[in-house]
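Teaching note: in complex prediction, the entire set of molecules is handled at once rather than each chain in isolation. The prompt given to students was simply: 'Predict the structure of this complex.' The entities are:
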Amino acid sequence: MISIDPQMEAALQTFFEESRDLLQDMESALLFMEESGADPERINAVFRAAHTIKGSAGLFGLEEVVRFTHCLENLLDRIRAGSTDLTPSRITLLLSCGDHIAEYLDKISVGAALDERFLAEDLRLLTALTEALGTTLPAPMSASVLKSEARPGPEVIPPGSVKTGNWHISLRFGVDTFRDGMDPLSFLRYLEQIGEIVGLVTLTDSLPPLAQMDAESCYLGFEISFKSDADKSQIADVFDFVKDSSTVHILPAHSQIGAYLQLIQQLPEADQHLGEILVSVGSLTEEELQKALALQDVGNQDGQHRPLGAILIAQKMVQEPVVQGALEKQQQQREQQVAERQMLRVRAADLDHLVNLVGELVIASAANSLFAMQDGAEDRVESAAHVARLVEEIRDGALHLRMIDVAEVFQRFPRVVRDMARTLGKDIRLEISGEGTELDKSMAEKITDPLMHLVRNAMDHGIESAERRRALGKPVQGCINLHACHDAGGIIIEVRDDGGGLNREKILNKAMEKGLITSEQTLGDREIYALIFAPGFSTADQVSDISGRGVGMDVVRQNIEAIRGSIEIHSTPDVGSTMRIRLPLTLSIIDGFLVKLATDTFVIPAESVEECLEYPERQGVPGYMELRDQPLPLLHLAGVFRIDGEAGKRRNVIVVRHGQHRVGMVVGAILGNQQTVIKPLGKLFDQVPGISAVTILGNGDVAPILDISALIHGHVSAKHIH
Amino acid sequence: MAKTILVVDDSASLRQVVGIALKGAGYEVIEACDGVDGLAKLGSAAKVHLIVSDVNMPNMDGITFVKEVKRKAEYKFTPIIMLTTEAEEEKKLQGQAAGAKAWVVKPFQPQQMLAAVGKLILP
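The expected output is the structure of the full assembly:
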């Protein structure tokens, strides 16, 4: 969209990622200051975020982002300088601005158009920013304004201009030029990029005698006749970096003789001597010089002699104490921050590739061990065992690389809770614990939405109104707790609230009303609570703006199950509820349940297996079996996958569950549990129904991993049609 | 031999774009993410001919960084370009006082960076 250059495209991706991180930092800093008051360190962090985004956006030509962040930066700069206060309403404004920039970037990254709602928000925020800046806002100083201010041009107007069509440039480099890291010659070389140096005389007049000469000082001056089509600002621009420390005069082609006179007067060299140099460079003819010198007396009588450098030097003197104070402060800050984190950014795709290879290595190592065992040679068995151990360590290490702190997921929540508490008019605080718990990055991305929904739900429906809390003798401020920890080879994330708890009766009534259960059914607490995950279930008396977003708890459950997690609810009336999400440690290794269909091996994800039964050869209703007085639909996998061969003397039924649905899968022999590495299906096979991925067994055989959700839903819906 | 430029900025995307432009013009580029990193890279590099540094960075800001660089005998005469914004006129002056006499105002286009570098050193 902006550039087709792949290098720039990659840089643009970096920009999007980095901006998201910065906006997150900005938000955290703002929320912190809202709680604990403004502090310079954090204000600067917020400023830096806006500043960096603006700088980079400019590089990519994202003008609209630059324009917006520019206004934001102006306000932040004034807050930083202390001339504008960071009031709560301004924090809210700044937070909205952060959101707005994030949306800008999202839209740009997918190439979406800026719709009306978005533009209206844009206008609203810009107006609010301008208002916050007040009317005293000085017009943004552009570089060009500064340049023209700093260089008063020659202003004498006597008639008669010089013959030459070339520019005349007069340079006296400052004594510190070398120390400033500048090389006079490099400017002259650069000058040649925009024109031709026709004549040049080097002035060595200010060179002191050798004994007094400082080798690090610059004593050089140049008079240059320069032929170019460039305009004055372009030429002046060449000497931009030395204009403060050096004397630069630029006279356009056919300047008035008076202008040359003024130049001669302003420069330190003797007038006659300098005049002759101008003639030798070719900028003045002999006659013109004489004319100029004749004009000299008039100028002297006026007494208009403006030492150019003096003003600038005076300005520098004023700056000195300010500079010192600021530098000392920064020195102190730096000393505090020397302990630096060393981090490496790694491309996610590279990491996936590595993890994939390590997966292969695990399999190869298993095969190696197997052959060594068959071989029986003790040395080989031992060395194979050693390799296997190392490979396992490498696997753990590689998987660990994909892990991030759950803090990265949790960090979005302070803002969500704050904003929503305001919308709801409730006083709710957020507590976060166990944020150091690690989980797979891809899982972190997928768990955020379900968590968000659960937190919103807990705030909206869980936490009671202030009056009710007071009546119950609870603290008026409600509390949402996000907690994470490791547990038995998995991760647990909990959303707790100290609200009213789930209302059993309400859920039961609603479920009956919706036809989810019948009045005869007797259900335990957990079964009742699980009903809220049924599609279309909502107990809120009124669908509120906040949690009634057309997404129910059923979607939460589906999302969690899609990453092979599960969710359960614990609730006590008037004390609160806990939503406990259990996730696997990683998405790349699965606890598989291996079964046989004729000669082929299939893998059923172990977390969906409820129990194993012997296949009943007699069934009351074909296609169903009875399981504890309940009908259980049966699914013959051999039929689904059209596997021929002997029906198998001993068939088994594996009871699997997905969501609310249970199915008995009819398989051959059961081989048991085994950890398997998930290998994605190639493009060619990713449409195969009923199979989500494959794994490679220790003996090198490929075993498909069953897609339980697809199998159950395909099956269940087919039965419904009948 | 190509001249080496050290680019110090906390924005990875800025470093990337500036790097693409400078390398395209024939310079070698070393990147650093803040002042501390910049000093470390200066210490380990064979020779750096020019430094481009942002002002506002975490850990060690550009002005402190420039002061530190100027204290090193071997980099006393190395040109330094400061990246400032128009909102940071004071910072620019502080940077100049510290020894960074050249500057580029953010946001800038890659060719503006090339022009600034071109005034100070050739590839």
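Point out the following to students. Chain A touches chain B through 64 residues (CB under 8 Å). Chain A is about 45% helix and 20% strand.
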